[in-house]
C-alpha cells in the first residue's frame, strides 16, 4: 500500500445534510499511531446527533467512533502491535499527561479528541488510531460485537460504575437500545438483585426479559409508578437513563429509593425539570452525569464478554455495507426513535 492509495469513506460534509461517500487518501500513521483496517464500525445514536448538529463536530469528517479491525501497519515507534493483530479502539484520543488523564478522567483531557467526531473515524476502509488507544481483541469476540462494545457497552458499564452499583441493589434501565441491552446484562453481572427494564418496544422488552430483567412497558402506564408498585413503594437504588429525553430522565429520578442515584447518559438539548424537595432533597437522591467511558474499563468489559456474561449476539441484529444510503437510512431511523434493530454495524468488507 502506498501513501497515495485511496479508499472509500462515508463523511459528514455539512451539518444537517446526509452523509456522503467520498474517495480519500489512505491515512499514513504517525510514529505512535497504527493504521487499522476496519472490519466493523457500529452506528450509534450519537452519529445521528452529529449529523443533525445536536452535538457539534468539525466538518468534513468521517463518522464512526465504534471501531474494531486488524492492524494494517504500525508507526515507527510502535512495537507492541503487529500486522494482522485483532484490535478494537477506545474512541477518546488523549494526551495521557495532564491532571485529568493522570487522575483517570481522560474524557476531560483539554486536548482530547474523539474518533468520528474531532478526527476521522471508522466509516471507512481504514482508520488511523493512536497506539495508546488500541486494545487487543480476544478471538472469542467478533469484530461486530467488539465495535459496539467500544461505545454502547462501555458507556453502560461506566454509567453503572458512576452510579456506584453495589451487589444486592436494585436497578432500573430506561431505554433498551444497544446501551440498555448491555446495561441490563452488566447490571446483573455486577450483582444487582433485580433489574427493571423500561421501554416502549415489545420486542426490546421481551429481549430484556431473556436477560433476566423485569420488563416495564412505558406505554402502558407511568414507568416510575410501575417501578414503585413493584418495589412496595420504595423505588430502586440505581436508575440509568439511556434514551436522551427529558421525560425519561425525570422518570429515572422519580423511580429512586432513598439515597438512590440516577445516572444520565442519554443526550438531549432540552432542559430537565425536577421537584427539588420531593424528588431530590427529601430522598437525598443524586443526579449523576455520565460522559463517555474510560480506557481502564475496557479490559473488564472484554473479559465479561469473553466469559459470556455479556452476550451481544441478540443485540447486534443488522449489518450494512460501507454505503452512504444504507448508513443514512439507519441514522434516519435513530432520529425518529424507530429503529427496529437493537444495534446496526457497518461492515466494509461485507462480513463481520
How would you concisely characterize the structure shown here?
27% of the residues lie in helices and 27% in strands.
Distance between the termini: 23 Å
User: What would the CATH topology of the largest domain be?
Assistant: Quinone Oxidoreductase, Chain A, domain 1
Total number of domains: 2
Rg from alpha-carbon coordinates: 20 Å
- In which range does the helix fraction lie? 25-40%
The main β sheet shows up as: 7 strands, mixed
What is the mean pLDDT?
93
Shape: globular
Share of β-strand residues: 25-35%
Count of alpha/pi helices: 10
CATH superfamily membership of the largest domain: Medium-chain alcohol dehydrogenases, catalytic domain
Assembly type: single chain
- For the record, what CATH class of the largest domain applies? Alpha Beta
